[in-house]
């Protein structure tokens, strides 16, 4: 179907708004040929991996689902448990194996596997163990599904997305980290709760590192199309910066709160990753704050680093990064966040 002339232009001059709104990804690969049979592989069948798999199944996103894990008994049990729900789910072929052959021909590979931090273990040592694990995961995925998109969920997600990019040899548009997509959902929930509105009517992003150095883009927040901070200023409604910082801090600490209460997080990340999968597989071209190769965007030109930016997603992975206006303070915080991630990457020697 041909795109209408009004789809990306405005006014008698035919100004192409696509080029103004989005900055394209350099050296991106072409999308694979259209294939009606859709296959997704989930690597790691822990709480997060199974929440993602279950959500993908209930949303009827795939024709085939492959599960991979190093623990054969748990893997077999999870596969059977899902297969036994066949009468209540859309028809989907579900397979599981410790062998990566089962992932062959995947459109999307979602990696949730990762080492857990031992008591007293340094962050660097944990990263080194995750790096060793990724060396056994990413190369076989790339071998069996050379046209796939890699979606990294394991933490620290920004660094491991960079590792996956290096190990796979894929173009950067086909390696994505779940990043701050869930952080932004938590952010929208808290703002909606403060204003007593539906979270879907709140437009708000957390960008940068999925972690302590993340950046809340307060200057671009809108509710029902109304820019919040500029509206408050026009109405001469006084607000305290400390209140905004408290909301951001609550976003950063919310995962720890869930973990302290129930031992792990699962459902929110399951819905978050399933939404990314849906928009990639169905070429929805929606914008999500996800971890992408940030070099060349927002003044980040000092190294190859993955961090979350508002990116347009479709069948070819990352289609572009939105030109969201940042204040000078937000832009500096984003660059500082990039430097924080780069310092960690430098210790890995990848």
Question: What do you see in this structure?
Answer:
With 350 residues, the protein is an alpha/beta fold. Helix content is 41%, strand content 19%. It has a six-stranded parallel β-sheet with strand order 6-5-4-7-8-9, with helices on both faces. The protein has a four-stranded antiparallel β-sheet with strand order 3-17-16-15. The chain has a three-stranded antiparallel β-sheet with strand order 10-13-14. A hairpin with a 4-residue loop joins β1 and β2. The longest helix is centred in the middle third of the chain and has 22 residues.
In short:
This protein is of the alpha/beta class and 350 residues long.
Keywords:
single chain; four-stranded antiparallel beta sheet; globular; disordered N terminus
Could you tell me the strand content as a percent range? 15-25%
How many beta-strand elements? 17
Helix share, percent: 40-55%
How large is the radius of gyration? 20 Å
Quick one: biggest sheet? 6 strands, parallel
SS field, number of helical segments: 10
List the helices and strands and how they pair.
Elements (H helix, E strand, L loop, with lengths): L8 E2 L4 E2 H5 E3 L14 E5 L3 H12 L5 E5 L3 H12 L9 E5 L10 E4 L11 H22 L4 E4 L4 H12 L6 E3 L3 H15 L6 E2 L2 E2 L7 E2 L5 E2 L2 E2 H7 L6 H22 L4 H15 L4 E8 L12 E9 L2 E6 L5 H21 L2
Parallel strand pairs: 4-5, 4-7, 5-6, 7-8, 8-9
Antiparallel strand pairs: 1-2, 3-17, 10-13, 11-12, 13-14, 15-16, 16-17
Helix pairs in contact: 2-9, 4-5, 6-8
